[in-house]
Write a structure and sequence with these properties.
This protein has about 200 residues and is mainly α. Helices cover about 70% and strands about 0% of the residues. The N and C termini lie far apart (about 45 Å). InterPro entries: Homeodomain-like_sf (IPR009057), HTH-type_TetR-like_transc_reg (IPR050109), HTH_TetR (IPR001647), Tet_transcr_reg_TetR-rel_C_sf (IPR036271), TetR_C (IPR011075).
């Protein structure tokens, strides 16, 4: 039977080993970047057998894929504030907190850089964002039902529009990601959604 890396026997020792290895992998990515991620070094940091890491994850890209899957699973669930702007603001502030965190921000920078030149890492990163966008898309769908946004609004595109300015700021300016930046991104996405910018055409 084929299983995804690290998914065998979700409880007990397997879960503890997976958690330790993924934590160690995240630390290396945050501290040194993708180029310095080495399975043997991760095993040493996690205090598990090197053979276990090679057998379960196989490659560095396999390990990164599992790390991103775990991060998607562990992310906080969406908020339900009762309004489109409230929900999008909650989403923007969550993204900002993640990217402004010294460890998490560095980790995402490393993975994004790796994804630019490694297909499997790019695929894993795309899956991560697909999961997170799908988690938050219902807040836009509910806004459409309440009449806050027009019928046909692409909920996924609205959610992407919230976080896009924050990632752009992180990767291109070096300026701090403050809460004002998050709130501005949410207001812009909400205003565009209400104006019908995200309604699918033709």
């Amino acid at each position: 039977m084929n299983t995804e890396p690290g998914s065998v026997r979700p409880g007990g020792r397997t879960a503890r080993v997976r958690a330790a290895v993924l934590r160690a992998a995240g630390d290396v990515l945050a501290e040194q970047g993708f180029a310095h991620l080495d399975l043997a070094d991760v095993a040493r940091r996690a205090e598990v057998g090197k053979t276990t890491v090679y057998r379960r994850w196989g490659t560095v890209t396999g390990l990164v894929a599992d790390l991103l899957a775990d991060m998607a699973e562990q992310s906080l669930p969406r908020a339900e504030t009762g309004s489109l702007l409230g929900d999008l603001t909650a989403n923007a502030r969550l993204v900002r907190r993640t990217l402004a965190d010294p460890r998490q921000g560095a980790l995402f920078k490393a993975v994004i850089a790796a994804a630019a030149c490694d297909t499997r890492t790019a695929e894993a990163l795309h899956r991560f964002y697909e999961i997170r966008v799908a988690e938050w898309a219902p807040c836009v769908e509910q806004a459409v039902e309440r009449g806050e946004a027009p019928e046909g609004t692409d909920a996924h595109e609205v959610i992407r529009a919230v976080s896009a300015p924050l990632y752009y700021r992180l990767l291109t300016t070096g300026a701090p990601l403050d809460e004002a930046s998050a709130d501005r991104a949410a207001r812009a996405a909400a205003a565009a959604a209400r104006a019908g910018v995200f309604v699918a055409r033709g």
